[in-house]
Amino acid sequence: MRSVPGSQATKVYRCPGCDHEIQPGVPHVVAWPADELGSVADRRHWHRACWDARGRRGPTRKRF
Question: Is the residue at 62 inside a domain?
Fold first, then answer.
């Protein structure tokens, strides 16, 4: 997992936690499965609040 500051967020992503878009300029986190070694296809961009709440929510499409 790594944090992405708003100044480096330049694309629109869909958060797997809430299924809403993360707009350019919005700080967020990027996460990938621990058992994967840097596969770009397995990275997911999350809102920080969704990432922090992931253990308290129902299942997402793919658990990180």
Answer: no
